[in-house]
Amino acid sequence: MVVCSLACWRCRWLLPLLLGLAIIMGIIALAGRGWLESESAPYVHQASLWESCTRGEQDLNWNCESLMDYGWGRAAAATYLVGFVILVICFALAVIAFSVEILRFNFVRGIGGLLFVVAAFQIIGLVIYPVKFTEEIPLTGANMFSWAYGFGWASTVVVIGCAFFFCCLPNWEDEVLGNIKPTYYYSSPERAPYLN
């Protein structure tokens, strides 16, 4: 294995940094109006996690309806939002784990487990949304799931990757802390004849 790619003391902040990146992408997904958009002009449809907006081809004003009026809309928003809140908690725990000397590896695997829970919640929300949206909301023209929806998936992929790293990191605790002496291999036969 690649020693979790974190087998150095200087690299210990890489995982909290990645979790911070996942949080930023999650905020973009939660606030963005680009979950679903018209594929080409005239742009007559756009939707966020919270509402769906349409307009006529010549109209400049958007007419929006809340997706919270639908059970599936509340379910998609709630599952994604719960996953996001747990992600923020995991970020705070990761900062604590890598800041405090004693606590660092005591609950790193627990953070990894929580991140798998985050991924499960986010995936549920990201699957419910397009399936039920296309079934229940009338679509006009060619539409596509767009940038904000993509940020939701990107956040989830980063969370899954971090979950694996948090779970495997305690296996290399000594390497990360620098407690293992380096091993030197000599290629010169005079210096180490027993290696031949």
In short:
Helix content is 53%, strand content 9%.
Reconstruct the topology from this structure.
Layout: H1 14-31, E1 36-38, E2 45-47, E3 51-54, E4 63-66, H2 71-99, H3 108-136, E5 143-145, H4 147-168, H5 173-177
Helix pairs in contact: 1-2, 1-4, 2-3, 3-4
Which features characterize this protein?
196 residues, five-stranded antiparallel β-sheet, 5 strands, single chain, alpha+beta, Butyryl-CoA Dehydrogenase, subunit A, domain 3, disordered N terminus, cytoplasm
Please provide a written account of the structure.
The structure is a single chain. This protein has one domain: Butyryl-CoA Dehydrogenase, subunit A, domain 3. Helices cover 53% and strands 9% of the residues. The protein has helices at residues 14-31, 71-99, 108-136, 147-168, 173-177; strands spanning 36-38, 45-47, 51-54, 63-66, 143-145. The chain has a 5-stranded antiparallel sheet with strand order 4-3-2-1-5. A hairpin with an 8-residue loop joins strand 3 (51-54) and strand 4 (63-66). It is elongated, with a radius of gyration of 23 Å. It starts with 13 loop residues before the first helix and ends in a 19-residue tail after the last helix. Mean pLDDT is 82; it is low at 1-7. One of its GO terms (biological process) is apoptotic process. It is a multi-pass membrane protein. Belongs to the TMEM47 family. This is p53 apoptosis effector related to PMP-22.
